[in-house]
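Q: Entry one of two.
A:
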Amino acid sequence: MERRRVLGAGLSAAVLWTGGTTSALAGGRSQRLTERDLPAARRLFAAGKYDQLHQVLPEMVARARESERTGPVGAGRAAGVWVLASQLAVKEGEVDTAAAFAVRAGTAARRSGRPALLAAAARAAATPLRRTGRADTALQLLEEAHDALDTAPRLSAAVLDASGMVALTAAYTAAQARMPSAAEQFASLAEQTVARLLRDHGRVPAGGELSPAQCVLYRVGIHQKLGDVDRALAYAAGLEPAALPTPERQARAATDTARALLAAGDVPTAFLQLQLVERAAPQEARRPSVRALTAEVAARRPDLPGLTAFARRTAT
């Protein structure tokens, strides 16, 4: 619990967004971001190494502010940092901090002039918006970002990747808002986009997120949110974790499957999925939302072997 309080405090201190100022987090250093900084930080996120990411994040935030002032390239690098910081805040349940960083990401992305970055910022903004009951605003942002991407007859692999991921985020947002038709339309659009990506370019771009497995993973969460548990579990059964490229994604698959299993009343198998979360990325199992699933399992089946030790181990 103390680690989460410290993490939340550190992120909140990183950007006092209501006043538009940042603390002097870099120890007086005034360096700009390089092209290698963000990929290295993203690798920590993808590996589920959130504590390590938090250690490097404050200096990156300060350097991002310096870079943002230098022009479109620097603004683009800064936007990537703000998106990553927002995603990390979401992992720790810091919704206000996530929203603040997403706002900064959108501002920097517009300065960069790159629609793919604006799409990433819209995706970052969607999570805190829908968690605070503003799914309609989130969908509007996502639709605008998607439209901005779809402007050329032959889109690059990176743009198709961004377009498909925006559609998946919109589908999940619509599902959480109980809009099944919109959720299905966006999910189908993402599936069409990944088919186009593979047809036109042959592979997912380096650093890309969109893939057939990613679409199936989102389908699990989408149908669970819509209350169609049987369909969610059918998609989960067809999802091969090894097809997901990172520990963070593999942990997400196990988490969403556990939610669907709990909704179906299969508590023992849900606990097995939570153990897979820990196996894929131990810090994922300590997230507030995952700990809430563990608490639900414990409330419903306290007799499950290994549960007490699991709950104790993931509580800190």
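Q: Entry two of two.
A:
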Amino acid sequence: MHREQQERAEYFHQLHTGPAPLMLPNAWDVASARVIENAGAQAIATTSAGMAWSLGYPDGEQMPVQELLAACARICRATAAPVSVDIERGYGRDAQDTGNVVDALIQLGVVGINIEDGTDPATQRLAHPSVLCARIACARTVARQHDLRFFINARIDTYCTKDVNAAARLEETRTRALAYIDAGADGIFVPGLADLDEIATLARSLPVPLNIYAGYPGAPAALALGELGVRRISLGCGTMQATLAHLADITSEAIADGRYDTMGKAMLTVAEANGLFTTAGTHHDRDTSAAVTHAIGLNSLQ
């Protein structure tokens, strides 16, 4: 394990303990990661949906794992910041498959993951918490084998499903969170949780940082969330959704009006865009080809 990666992992943990919540505008490829880093982000977190869309797949583990790893390899080579990767439900049929993905990501230089309980494909209902507990435990074991303080952010989808009665959601979320923490999670992510009182209640009841999703119009401001005890804020696929909508506006204006005003309001120069990549290939130095090839050979993953 390279000392630089261990230092990035420690730094990523420290970012969750600062005076303000860690803000993560999520990236989907190298260009978005470098723009986000260049704009002042202290860490890079990927959006699984955005990454899938950029590669021509719908969200929901439809993107082949080798394409996920190849995209992460490019991001890690291009940024000096800590990188955390959204691996959805963990890829593959069981916890060992998830462990293999985590092993490959660590070899690329990644220092954390986001992993969710989500919906069981067989039942279309919220997965039993034991499934994610097993995957988290396996990921933690792999990280220990690498002697890396790997950050596991456990996403709970109780607020993204109709399976859980609204009155029971907060307690079900807390129960799952504590189970995931016992399994080895370092943080808890609850997309869809927007009620300020419930956010404050959950934050107080957890011994680890609470991550809230803010990738939608009208989301509470970072200052307000920080006052409630939130330690991490993710914009998720909202960053790419906004980017795609802006591209649609540029295109519509050009086609319908023959004008380029929207595009011209804010553009990087060619030199500025090229400047994002002048150090590409110097960061997160790893044998990335070996890691990706190893994952491609794991037939059970896809």
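A: Comment on entry two: The chain has one domain: 3-301. The chain is about 50% helix and 10% strand.
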